[in-house]
Amino acid sequence: MESLFDSAARDNTPEPLAVRMRPRTLDEVIGQRHLLGPGTPLRRLVESEAPMSLFLWGPPGTGKTTLAYVVSNVTKRRFVEVSAVSAGVKDVRTAIENARRELGMTGRQTVLFVDEVHRFNKAQQDALLPAVENRWVTFIGATTENPFFSVISPLLSRSLLLTLESLTDDDVGAVLDRAVADERGLDGAVTLRPEAREQLVRLAGGDARRSLTYLEAAALLADDVTVEVVEKAVDKAAVRYDRQGDQHYDVISAFIKSMRGSDADAALHYLARMVEAGEDPRFIARRIVVFASEDVGMADPTALQVAVAAAQAVDFIGLPEGRINLAQAVIHCALAPKSNAVVKAIGAAQADVRAGHIGQVPPHLRDAHYPGAKKLGHGEAYRYPHDFDHGVVRQDYAPEELRDRRYYEPTTHGAEAPVAERWGKLRAFLRGER
Q1: HSE value, Cβ hemisphere, 13 Å, CA-based, for 3
Q2: Interior angle at CA 374, CA 369 and CA 378, nearest 5
Q3: Architecture category of domain 169-234 in CATH
Q4: Which residue has the higher pLDDT, 317 or 194?
Q5: How many whole angstroms separate alpha carbon 280 and alpha carbon 366?
Q6: I need a labelling partner for 239 at 20 to 30 A (CA). Which of 93, 96, 180, 409 fits?
Q7: Helix (H), strand (E) at residue 57
Q8: Are the CB atoms for 211 and 175 separated by under 8 Å?
Q9: Strand (E) positions, 69-168?
């Protein structure tokens, strides 16, 4: 059985599959429907003769380079790509000067595409300003980081910002199907089994370029692409994980229970399984944030801060780097002292409310700011705690029928031990028990 490697050698096609399958028109672009509809700024750019500048912000593999290429291809403009990883100010100025010369001599416009523009320092970004202001080029900057933090204000204010979204599983599947059938791709030379297709979609994690790279590697090994071929091609064991099925719930359950059981190693294993399977990192982050209050709570109040910071970091930088932030939060939560007193407290309070134990708000606690409130006795006899020693004063706060209810029962674990001691004294004083 001949592999695609042999036919590829005969056809002499050195370009990677992801490059060969790059869309040529906006209609061929898969995903990003919010940017590609009739009347959208991107459509107007393609249909217009005038140069303009824009930033494409989104996770890896969502089509930033593709969109820049399509704009150049459809508008018949020169496409010049500069990588912010390796280029300096001199390279930027040379590209701009060549674009000016081309425009002056032939009238042909240039698309100057700067990949990973957030890596440019201020001086390098400043070098772009004249070209943007004078419309010498159509500038397109691609970034995976928030441009409001990584791009200088003068450049950002002169450009249109377009936010790209992660591709859905259906989008990535469509990319694979097109690559298998299209003459620019594999041209039907391989058979992609449904299970292998699902595996590629999972491993891609919303990254179209990664899915095509894995598909190409698998196609080099065999004409019949199975899960086993995919595993061998990407050099990793298949992640037996279905985001829509039982495995999804089993893995996230084991993840939570491992953190609750203080086994950081096991928790990291399940985190790795979810990340490798393409689970939405925001979903993982949300579960850690919930865990920080539900299972750690006041035993280590900093756990919530770490979890929220990790969630914000993931939203800010995405994957793959975001996995490090998630791992830090997982380790912190797993090793923290545990207390479920917070979730038990709010649960008990809600149970009383649902059972109809409501009661009237004591008159001295009611709002006394609106006209006529004082005539009703609202706010009368309220004692302002800051006027008393230690900022505490004995008075009724709960409705009368709930004055003896106890909701928050702290543990003596970790940082909750001094909280328990203080709350015990406060409760006794406020209830008149001492």
Answers
A1: 11
A2: 80
A3: Orthogonal Bundle (1.10)
A4: 194
A5: 45
A6: 180
A7: strand 53-57
A8: yes
A9: 78-83, 110-115, 138-143, 160-163
